[in-house]
Specification:
Layout lengths: L5 E4 L5 H13 L3 E2 L8 H10 L6 H21 L4 E5 L5 H4 L2 H4 L3 E6 L2 H14 L4 E6 L17 E5 L9 H13 L5 E7 L4 H7 L6 H17 L8 E8 L4 E8 L3 E5 L2 E5 L4 E8 L3 H10 L3 E7 L5 E7 L2
Parallel strand pairs: 1-5, 2-12, 3-4, 3-6, 4-5, 6-7
Antiparallel strand pairs: 7-14, 8-9, 9-12, 10-11, 13-14
Length: 318
Amino acid sequence: MHRTPRFIQKSVADASADLAAAKQALLRTPASASPKWFYDRLGSHLFEAITELPEYYPTRTEAAVFAAHGAQMARHVGVGATLIDLGAGNCVKATRLFPLLEPSQYVAVDISVDFLHDALRRVQREHPQLDVVGFGMDFSQSFDLPPALVEHRPVFFYPGSSIGNFTPAEALVFLKRVRAQAHGGGLLIGVDLVKPAPILEAAYDDALGVTAAFNLNLLRHLNHLLGSDFDPRQWRHIGLYNEVMSRVEMHLEARTALVVRWPGGERAFEAGERIHTENSCKYTVEGFASLLQQAGFSEPRHWTDERGWFAVFWASAD
């Protein structure tokens, strides 16, 4: 039987509220911008390029953990589930697990719907018998999958340590939301671990400047969304490790004094003033296992690479 992927777009009724929040964030001191604005079509492609950089260890280290321990993970996760891929992107990480997990349904969730369309057509071609669904949603704000969408035991998949974009308090709220929808299944999640600052900072400020382009593209995306007049040439990328908060931070720093305008508002920036665009929190194994238990998951298990740089957790929601 030939299938085509189904696509569902969550209501965009809240789009105006999102844009109003983006303007307010720019007016705060310090200014900030949500990392979700990284992911227009160009931003999604730039992030793909970042994952190929020698400095950016998380993607290949996580892949090594799955390669070494995937069969053992599969024994705990089980087969035949609905695999719900959060922040699916190009869907490659999830599809690599298909031979082990043998999902009966694949639900890819991402904010970048255009990018997701392209990826899921490929997934459906490669797996013609699989029920493939694309769900366009900003799950960082609210997270409610339509009950009728998930046809089998729900296994949530959240790789890449994207959980680090949340503060620990926000991560706990998010994990509780996942737990509430994971009855009978669970969560398979990648988590970046604490390590020396030079390794972390190089991963978020590479020599080729791809991460800088990714960060600066956020300004271009905001121009499209808000009608603002950011000039990316007036800004520089900053990536640093905040040891006290145990997180890498990304900022955009004004090269000179400037004014950014958009319909109905403006913001003056002094030279050296920054827009905080992303956090990437780093955890210890013990710290993240505790967070999962606080969220209501039981008996979290974990696997790491040989250097202890990255962990993959399975947390049951039985």
